Amino acid sequence: MASSMESAVLRLLETGLGLPPAEREPWLQGLTEDALVITRLRGLLAAESAAGRFLEQPVPSAALSSAFGLPETGDQLGAWLLGRELGRGGMGVVYLATRADGTFTQQAALKLMRGEFLLHDAPVRDKLAQRFENERQLLAELSHPNVARILDGGTTATGVPWLVMEYVEGVSLTDYSTQHRLDMPARLRLFCKLCSGVQAAHQHLIVHRDLKPGNVLVDAEGEPRLLDFGIARALGPQAAAAVTRTGVQAMTPAYASPEQMGHKPLTTASDVYSLGVILYELSTGALPYVLDGLSPAASEQVICHSQPNTLRHALWAGALPLTERQQRLAQIGGDLERIVQKAMHKEPTRRYASAQALAEDLQRYLAGQPVQAHPDSVGYRAGKFLRRHRWGSMAAMLALLAVLVAASIAFRQARRAEQAAADTGSVNAFLLDVLKMSSPYNSGSELSLSDALDEAAGRVNAHFGNRPDLAIAIHNALAQSMFSRNRLEAAENQIKLARSLSNTLYGPDDAHTVESLAILANIRKDQYRDNEARALFKDALQRLERSQQTGLPLYTDVLNDLGVLYLLGEDYAHAREYIQRALDRDTLAAGADRAAQEEHARTLGNLAHAERGLGHLDRADALYRQAQPILAALYPDGGPHLAVILNNRAKLARERGKLPEAFELQQQAVAMYRHAFKGDHVMVLVPITNLSAIALLTGRVDLAVQSGEEALAMADRLYAREPHPYQINALVALAAARLAQSDRAAASALLARAVKIKKLLDKVPASTARRLHELITRFCDGPAAHGDGLCVAAPADSAAPA
Question: Has 210 been annotated as catalytic?
Fold first, then answer.
């Protein structure tokens, strides 16, 4: 039992030592191992941290050297003279060594156990020594130009193991590709050489288990060398049993396979997955998953159950310079996307059978031949053939294409011409009526196009009484137009008509009917009828699920919209649940249209909002930075969706104490909102309120007052008939600005009105209630507050939120 526990501790210790000291305690708290194992592990990590200052020196301390006979710079081990330190990992430290026996001149990398591990008890030391012996035996069996060779090995007089490897003077795989500005074909050819080295290890039944760019050095001749077999394992029944028994594996999570994260027995397929991750990073400059700050359990959930962005989408969302990004986008085709997807498949049996098979498919891709990752078909193979023999096939292809197109057009025209003409004529007549209504000669006064659309809503039945399918589409379109202009009652009338027609024509679970239901749910959301909106959204999801229509974009939209509803109610945990489900389904395909790109960016922004609400500020910032470039490319002159990202990034910067950045972002957001929405609109009200608060924090009191007054006037106009929490937010923002001007009378009146509105509402967001309570508390703690009626009533009227 004790031996089993020490084995588990040892394997966990290697992972823990690879983490920065600040991240170790959260990592420990996320472990699910036995309490005794975690207690023992915590003690060992604490001891290592306490000794850290002198152990980080390149020369071991005198105490360790005398007690264990550790070599120092200038000492000789076998035929090797120890030089400067090259680097260190979880268990070992590597020194530059030169041959000193006079036979010939040679440099090498000498790996030695880190001195602090000799402080542990005998079982731990024995297992560390066994690990070094394991690496030495594995490397001794390998001889390949893309694998660093072992040259020598032994133990010191006191039993400390060491091994000598070929010294590779180079840089990591990714750094080499960046420094030499390799295009995609050159990157793929370099990667194929790495696959060759991994294949050699697999042929000797060795699984590396820690493939990553840092363990691949590329020399000046452009030859990659695979290094660091310290956690490699030989395949076989005993190795599998050892993994199962300990239940823990050392790894680098960002490159680890789902089965490795799940502590399952490994095969060569695990290394194939890691190669897929490296290929993804070489292609896009980014990793497929963002794991920063996640616990081991959360990292496992992400890797095992979510899908990464496609290569092209990762490039769009990444931080590469525009010219390089465009170059790579032009060089990445659908076949390369499929190769990466096959290599990184969640199921090991559906990946490439070997590293060699992966390399061979990449070579076929480079040669323009059909790849194994693509579903086979006559059309696919024919297309590849035509591209390889372009000029010889061009004339025949054009002739055949002309015949096929002509035949197709004739067939479709014969079947649909009559109906299409009737539909087009009907819709055109309706549109002409809309345009005529905007003429002052027909309406008596000049109407805007928006007013004309509102007037036209009553004429839909007259135009499409015998075509309910067209009437449904037009009612839905009119409802969405009215909804976007905050004409909620008019939008509701249109959507009820569409829903009734659709239910009769298509049935309750058809996508047309569910779309109307989802639009009504969004209307209820903006009417602040959260319970009704939530029930409608969930009803829409259930209808799509029971009719097996979850593959429709509509299903993803409803998941996202329900998440937004939870965001507005500041229920960030439920919001993240639904938005993450939407994002998991919303894999942006290569060549995705404008609407798909926009929806994907909005979903990223919504998920960032949820993460920010949960306090995961770094994760939120990363998501916002993924979403913004997509929307900026779609809307170079700005737009409402981009303004949402800017507004929320301003909030995030404010929470992180970056007030100048927050103020600049908020100003950009307000300007963009004003350009998109004319007149009173909730999408203008909220950012102006936020601008007032941020202006006050940055000392711009006059601007805070001006923005606060504008926000309050707009809120009062928008919610003249029914009070709303946004009025409280505007009142609090203006009251804070007046208090900064020492105008206590004005501040008191504004706060008293906010308290009154709060009493009229059934529900107020926690953040709104908290801001009101905090400002009243600050007001009442100020001078001459004892006689203020607000402060006398404050304990009852403005209790802090629960």
Answer: yes
